Amino acid sequence: MKQHPTSTPRHPADVHWSRRHWLQAVAAAGLGALALPHSRRAWAADAVEPVNRLDKPVRIIVAYGAGGASDSIARYVGDSIAQRSGKSVIVENKPGADGNIAAEAVVRAPGDSYNLLVSGSSTHAANATIYKKLGYNPTADFTPLANMASTPYAMIVNPKRITQTGVADFIAWAKKEGQPLSFASANVGGRIAGERFKQLTKINAVNVPYKSSAQAMTDLIGGQFDFYFCDMLTALPQIKAGHVRALALSGAERVPSLPDVPTVAELGYPGFDVSSWIAIWSAKASTPAPVSAALSQWIGEALASAAGQDFLVKKGLVPTPVTPDYLTMLEERDTRLWGKIIIDAGMQQP
């Protein structure tokens, strides 16, 4: 496992584009030209020509429960695939084991359908370090189709329990208290964000794991722990209702849905950037390359449309480039960067 650098290089080829740069590029190049370089051109190196229609139905297995961001976006692109392919699309939720159950199900699925996985930075980055042995190979068993969105975490507190309104005051209070604080996590990315926050700020805090974001949110509002790096889909309604307070964001950039909330990096911790990503892969064993090329193209068209962009933003998600190469870059980067955080935090399974 390679070591995690103290900061992430920022250059044009880096995977983190600010929203400003993204929109400027869209305006300059045209939405389709930028957002869809993964169509015929992206597969040209392999001389793969996408098919026009499918001869089998499509099965999408989601690594998380119904109602979350991954489930929502899977069903959105599933509808788009069905419209373009002329075949039915079945979406199934198989949560558990940090996405490993879903990933294994896709790899082992029979060939009577084209089998896709909607997951992200757990199955294709973090789990390589967390688990000693996986029942799938993230690279050899899957064909990357698209990174569909990025999702930073909101660092939230219960304002009735925590009176501090800024991260600096929160850290000073946490260090003064002396007693260990507690922070919730409902997924691998949120846990890594909390652990990285601990590592950089030197506060004393212990993790309280939850099986769902909704239950963690209920207990935060109930005063059961001190802070929570929460997914945006769950956090936004509670922030806007005033039930919780957002102190900071875990990503590299602010998000349009919370324009006044700074990033942790802005607040004196450069290099802090923990955002999960929601991506989609096909199983190599059951999905030929021309079919994967077509699916990648259709997914990109759906997300690049005005309706697709609006859908993502309303869910608190950040649009990203949707090329297979971009997804591969994310996999390689976060396998390396998150690996060190995981080891330092003692998150590896025995």
Automatic annotation (TrEMBL):
It comes from the Bacteria. InterPro entries: BUG, Bug_dom1, TAT_signal. Pfam families: TctC. Belongs to the UPF0065 (bug) family. This is Tripartite tricarboxylate transporter substrate binding protein.
